[in-house]
């Protein structure tokens, strides 16, 4: 009676215990990846924080796992990944804000963090758990450690811009004798 209603198809799509553990582990690693990057962004008071990065990571991994589990060929899976990269780029683009009056652009690092989170989550979804963890650790290193380097470079460039050229008079002190 239930055979004709699609019940058999439904029961065939339920994974066995080993497959369920493997999928759960991939999704968990993706959530950890998103959580780590999201936590760093949350602690630095950035607009895309913990929940955004975790949902992005989970969604990316789900898409990749689904495509892989459907038995897609490598070329079909490649197209899925290309679509993800494009979609994540669009999402990251939404995080970028240009402030015309100040001639500044904000959100580039947030957009890049979103992209790295998606890439690491795709790796997790494909079962490349070590690659996902190493990738996100390197991304966190860039986000956390290189802030100090960036600030030092910014201070050095501002200092250099404010220095008077040596041996030349400034226009304010020029007496016109040349």
Instruction: Trace the largest sheet across and list its strands.
Output: 1-2
Q: Would you tell me the overall average pLDDT?
A: 85
Q: Unreliable runs, pLDDT <50, ≥5 residues?
A: 170-178
List the total number of helices. Answer: 6
Strand content: under 5%
* End-to-end C-alpha gap: 103 Å
Q: How many separate domains make up the residues?
A: 1
Helix content: over 70%
Estimated radius of gyration: 25 Å
Structural shape: elongated
* Strand element count: 2
Task: Characterize the largest beta sheet: strand count, sense, and whether it forms a barrel.
Answer: 2 strands, antiparallel
State the secondary-structure class: mainly alpha
Written as H for each helix and E for each strand, in order along the chain, the element string is: HHHHEEHH
Secondary structure layout:
Layout: H1 7-12, H2 17-43, H3 50-69, H4 74-95, E1 97-99, E2 104-106, H5 108-125, H6 129-162
Antiparallel strand pairs: 1-2
Give a quick summary of the entry.
The protein is mostly helical and 178 residues long. The chain contains six helices and two strands, in the order ααααββαα. It has one domain.
Structure description:
By secondary structure, the protein is mainly alpha-helical. It has one domain. Helix content is 71%, strand content 3%. It has six helices and two strands, in the order ααααββαα. It has helices at 7-12, 17-43, 50-69, 74-95, 108-125, 129-162; strands at residues 97-99, 104-106. β1 and β2 form a beta hairpin. It is elongated, with a radius of gyration of 25 Å. Mean pLDDT is 85; it is low at 170-178.
